[in-house]
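Please, structure for the following, as tokens.
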Amino acid sequence: MKKRQDYISWDAYFMGVALLSARRSKDPNTQVGACIVNDKNKIVGTGYNGLPVGCHDDEFPWSKEGEFLETKYPYICHAELNAILNNIGMDLHGCRIYTALFPCNECAKAIIQSGITEVIYLSDKYAGTGPASASRLMLAKAGVSCRKVVVEIKELSLSYREEDV
């Protein structure tokens, strides 16, 4: 018997972990997940966009518009920052980060400071905006490579039925 041929690539696997992590986000508008991987293809951190520990989800706003303090923006930790902060205690130098959305300028700073050397993203829907442009500039100047993920599959379904295992 030969091995299975339809297994997913490392990129599809790690982006899948990032997308699954995003499902934990309570943000009604944007759910982003991130997955940090070392040079041995071991996951060393995951995160999703949400409030900091100790800040209850029902006590803070989720709005995108309005007065600054009445929006989510001053309170939410982005997926990339959470993945860095949630890492398993390893040095992140030389790691790569898979993220559903190209990182903003604030997350780019954390990515650079942590020593991550590659960003792999799924969507770049804010390309051309100030934060995305600043992010690209900083990442490039710091030598962090960026690439859009390329996978052969378009979607993946998970089953939690016992009989499917």
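The longest helix spans residues 10-22. The CA atoms of residues 51 and 76 lie 5 Å apart.
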